[in-house]
Design brief:
about 80% helix, mainly alpha, single chain
Amino acid sequence: MNAVLIVAHKEFRDGFRSRWTVAIAGLFAALALAISYFGAVTAGRVGFTSFDATIASLTTLTAFLIPLIGLLISYDGIIGEREGGTLALMLSYPLSRTELASGKFLGHSAVLAVAILAGFGIAVTLVQIMTPSARTATAWFDIMRFAVSAILLGASFTGMGSAISVWSRDKGRAAGLALLIWAVVVLLFDLLLLAILVISGGNSIERAVYPYLLLLNPVDVFRLVNLLALGEGTHGDIFMAMTGARVYHPGILYGALLAWTAGPFALALAGFRKQDV
């Protein structure tokens, strides 16, 4: 365990040294504040709107941004060491492949978690200061739910990036595959499901199966965790209509996010153990 933490600390420190963490946190804070303040511009007004609407908007932003950043942080974790000639050196120390891969995964996940907490934390704090009506226990519970689910979403794509890094032949292919996975999971998956619904006319069998298909995508699970909890009157209304207003148990949703974190990382470990240096 000590070796895992040492590797994780190195990756975390490198994240700060390369300004990744600071840049990501700044980006999150700037975009979150912009969405919070200008979210109602189409209605002819600016300023902080309802806190539920702000969380819904942040959920939409996060669903696009965090998966991409999680993949970019981790896609070269192993393949980068191999191409740089340092992988064999690192494995010559009393350090197993499992410990090396686990440490890199934890370090990358920690970098993204800190950036999420710092960036969105700044934005949420300012919104709370500017909107006294949002200083309620319910609002803080929404914030905690959002933060936990966002960190798990980031970890799931960090795991995918780890798998890409292990199974790719070079960094160029790894980068291309990371972008392809982001496009499929974030952009194309829901479009495909909607197309199926439209073509089939939404028959009873499909309406029964469709809510479970959403669990096959970590981005949709993240949306379910946050948007459905906000109820009516937010941007979650469309998503609730897509799911047939189905009630999902929180344990199932968080379990799905954990599975999406553990599964890709297990795939990365399995591949790394089989490969030559």
